[in-house]
């Protein structure tokens, strides 16, 4: 039985991916700092074999323990490591507290780095896949979420680098670049004038992508050859514009100036 280990498995994209893979016969490992959220996810997986692991992705040693526990339950298998845990930090950059900036970097970037570092030997043994959650904010920098954009650019670059470095070792490396997925992270991410990201998206009349679509695209990414998978219409539009309309994107980001 193939096995996937999912960080941020207690909610959002992590939960949707767990349900999608479980429905297709996979063993699921859920990792999160939220035990209650993981229990809720596990209850949705039917008869699929599942283990839960309290994990702060900032803790490199804790990664070793969590993956050892998971592979002990899976018979040594780790076919996909889904580095999905992340937080949203928004607002005026210069007014953002130093500890909030550091926390965003430690979770969104270093959590991915530590997961890849700890998971390498298992993925090499299985010929598996490292799947990272980046963001459309890693396509072109987004005002109001500067540090978040920075971490997601870094995850994208890290994915591209490891794709080159690990391809000769039989490990597939992929990333999702979601735009506005309909999850709770949008509600806890203030972006200027105390408005949340959800309110900003509504005001701009942009779309919210169902979390189930992200789960299907995660499945496609694991089983296909596409390095970066765009999730949502806004992500696809941003990718096109970043390649062919960079001047227009800059003007829009500067408020038309």
UniProtKB/TrEMBL annotation:
Transmembrane stretches, start-end: none
Keyword Oxidoreductase tagged: yes
Superkingdom of origin: Bacteria
Originating species: Sphingomonas plantiphila
Homology family: Belongs to the short-chain dehydrogenases/reductases (SDR) family.
Protein name: SDR family oxidoreductase
Pfam families hit by this protein: adh_short
UniProt KW keywords: Oxidoreductase
Keyword Ion transport: no
SUPFAM superfamilies: NAD(P)-binding Rossmann-fold domains
């Amino acid at each position: 039985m193939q096995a996937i280990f999912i960080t941020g498995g207690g909610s959002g994209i992590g939960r949707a991916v767990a349900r999608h893979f479980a429905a297709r016969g996979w063993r699921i490992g859920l990792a999160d700092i939220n035990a209650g959220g993981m229990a809720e996810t596990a209850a949705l997986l039917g008869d699929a074999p599942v283990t839960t692991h309290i994990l702060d992705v900032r803790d490199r040693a804790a990664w070793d323990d969590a993956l050892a526990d998971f592979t002990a339950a899976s018979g040594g298998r780790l076919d996909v490591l889904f580095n999905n845990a992340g937080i949203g930090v928004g607002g005026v950059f210069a007014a953002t507290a130093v500890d909030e900036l550091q926390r965003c970097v430690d979770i969104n970037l270093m959590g991915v780095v530590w997961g890849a570092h700890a998971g390498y030997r298992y993925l090499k043994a299985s010929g598996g896949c490292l799947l990272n959650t980046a963001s459309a904010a890693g396509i072109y920098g987004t005002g109001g979420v500067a540090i978040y954009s920075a971490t997601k650019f870094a995850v994208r670059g890290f994915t591209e680098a490891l794709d080159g470095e690990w391809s000769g070792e039989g490990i597939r490396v992929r990333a999702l670049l979601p735009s506005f997925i309909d999850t709770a992270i949008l509600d806890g991410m203030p972006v200027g004038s105390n408005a949340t990201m959800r309110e900003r998206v509504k005001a701009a009349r942009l779309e919210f992508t169902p979390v189930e679509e992200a789960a299907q695209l995660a499945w496609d990414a694991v089983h296909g050859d596409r390095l970066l998978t765009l999730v949502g219409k806004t992500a696809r539009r941003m990718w096109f514009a970043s390649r062919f309309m960079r001047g227009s994107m800059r003007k829009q980001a500067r408020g038309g100036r």
